[in-house]
């Protein structure tokens, strides 16, 4: 059972992580209102991947912990779970809120030039995406190297 859960855990991590790390790449090339609208629409479609992957990730991770109860006494495991919740708050709550705000700003824009209000909102989203990516990176390090 442990091997199957580990397989699901790794597969779900890849699914969730690719979408989380791909978001900044999609939006970094945006230069016009049309491109920004397309990028936000693409992000909206890709948002299902971290939701499915993240749900399976936490369930399989906790399942692994229940099969190997000593994991709940391992600091790397507890910190990984805490980081997951930071990532979850950013990806499931904060970023979608910013995306909705950005879309409203773009719909009010005439022409193809990106408004300053959009750029400010996008900078906040990019900052949050950076934090989420850093948390993902630290989680991977913790799970692979188990430093403490």
TrEMBL record:
UniProt entry tagged with the keyword Nucleus: no
Q: Which residues form the signal peptide?
A: none
- Which keywords does UniProt give here? Membrane, Transmembrane, Transmembrane helix
Q: Where are the transmembrane segments?
A: 6-27, 48-69, 75-95, 126-145
Give the top-rank taxon of the lineage listed in the UniProt record for this protein: Bacteria
Q: What Pfam families does the database record attribute to this sequence?
A: DUF2269 (PF10027)
Keyword Metal-binding (UniProt)? no
Under the heading InterPro entries, the entry gives: DUF2269_transmembrane
This chain belongs to the protein called: DUF2269 family protein
Native source organism of the sequence: Paenibacillus solanacearum
């Amino acid at each position: 059972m442990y091997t199957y859960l580990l397989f699901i855990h790794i597969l779900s991590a890849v699914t969730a992580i690719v979408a989380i790390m791909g978001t900044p790449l999609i939006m970094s090339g945006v230069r016009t209102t049309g491109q920004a609208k397309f990028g936000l629409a693409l992000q909206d479609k890709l948002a299902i991947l971290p939701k499915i992957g993240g749900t399976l990730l936490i369930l399989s991770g906790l399942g692994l912990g229940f099969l190997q109860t000593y994991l709940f006494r391992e600091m790397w495991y507890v910190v990984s779970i805490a980081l997951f919740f930071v990532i979850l708050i950013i990806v499931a709550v904060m970023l979608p809120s910013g995306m909705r705000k950005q879309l409203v700003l773009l719909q009010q824009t005439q022409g193809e030039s990106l408004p300053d209000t959009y750029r400010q909102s996008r900078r906040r989203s990019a900052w949050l995406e950076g934090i989420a990516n850093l948390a993902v990176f630290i989680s991977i390090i913790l799970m692979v190297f188990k430093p403490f």
